[in-house]
Amino acid sequence: MSLPSTSPQITKRWAPRFFTIWGGQAFSLLGSLLVSFALIWWLTKSTGSATVLATASLVGLVPQVLLGPIAGALVDRWNRRVVMIVADSLIALFTLALAGLFAIGKAEIGHVYLLMFLRSVAGGFHWPAMAASTSLMVPKEHLSRIQGLNQMLQGGMSIASAPLGALLLEWLPLQGILAIDVVTALIAVVPLFFFSIPQPERNDLPEQANGKSSVWQDFRAGLKYVASWPGLLIIGIMATIINFLLTPAFSLLPILVTKHFNGQAIQLATLESFSGIGFIVGGLILSTWGGFKRRIVTSMVGLVGMGIGCLVLGMLPATAFTLAVVAMFYLGVINPIVNGPLLAAVQAAVEPEMQGRVFSLINSFAGAMSPLGLIIAGPVADRLGVQTWFIIGGVVCMLMGLAGYFIPAVMTFEDGRKRDLPVSPVDMTVAARPAEGD
């Protein structure tokens, strides 16, 4: 199967439509982060229970892990613009209902859990719809740069949302912050009524299907599609392993600060702040540079770099906190270099009509590894020290990045589902800048 071509509907004036929709989604992301911060803080102040906070995290994670593959199959069947409108509108409606409960003093912990669950379900439809639509609105040569902007946005929002949320909590009641999220969700919806999103043709159905299929058949087709494409399957396995190792490692960062570096909250905040700043810098680098001609090469080089950063962080002595800050900044920079091109490569190589299922499957399997990794990482860290988990994660990431470069199925992934071919040295050259007016 040949590499899918850029949609003929993508014109030289693609940017106004895409960035108007993207800007609305950016407002929605900020509102979501503010709500998350406010609700977690409310649960913390109301209960002081680690179990309640852990349950809240699971309630937000489980729907996307369990429903993700089915959601992806539905996204590939339905109109993606409508999916995004309905998902954002439902999030606004659910949030408004909880704001009403807080306003009349009837809100309880169970109501907060329910909102987190429902928002996660809606988000499980929204994210693959937006990710799969990007390749239909943006020319392939710009996908890495767009992902660089996405990574930069996420880093900036992560830094800004906590202090902004804390400031708003001083000025507004909790229902006021929930109302802000309702407004930002509506800001995301409005552009979708004025700008169309191209809908891919269903070229994945066999001739005997006569253009029809069930959700279960689409789901199975998505599984078969990923499993039958060695390069895509290996990339999915890599993403799963990274989540399994690094999500627990960085979740244990407070323990690294307190037990290894003998630090306090200010030291933890310093590490997280420099990581966020690095995230913005890395996204800016990627959006400006664009990466190597083969996006997958950029990701593999970045993966080796990420492994080195984790290894250094895990091997630092207790007296080297300043170097730990440098390592966290470096890891923040390298994160978009790994993830941005990888997502762009999938958007460029996978047929548009399959992207909802592919993104959801990878996201679900990788996401499911996070709680499993946490279950294993805790006892390992207690017995051998939390640095051990960073060292393990660093070594594995380095080995995966190096191994990926020598696996033809990975290096030729962007050629589509064709016979594995050796990569020419010319593919290591930096991606050319687009001509003016693209």
The largest sheet, given as strand count, sense and whether it forms a barrel, is: none
Q: Uncertain regions: pLDDT < 50 for 5+ in a row? A: 1-8, 419-438
Q: What is the residue-mean pLDDT, rounded to a whole number? A: 80
Q: In whole angstroms, how far apart are the ends?
A: 27 Å
What is the H/E string?
Answer: HHHHHHHHHHHHHHH
**How many structural domains?**
2
Query: Which structural class do you get from the secondary structure elements?
Result: mainly alpha
Strand content: under 5%
**Shape call:** globular
Radius of gyration over alpha carbons? 22 Å
Tell me the total number of β-strands. Answer: 0
CATH architecture descriptor name of the largest domain: Up-down Bundle
How many helical stretches? Answer: 15
CATH superfamily assignment of the largest domain?
MFS general substrate transporter like domains
The proportion of residues forming helix, as a percent range, comes to over 70%
CATH class of the largest domain: Mainly Alpha
CATH topology name of the largest domain, in short, is Growth Hormone, Chain: A
Nutshell version of this structure?
This protein is mostly helical and 438 residues long. The chain contains 15 helices and no strands. The chain folds into two domains: 190 residues, Growth Hormone, Chain: A (Up-down Bundle), CATH 1.20.1250.20; 208 residues, Growth Hormone, Chain: A (Up-down Bundle), CATH 1.20.1250.
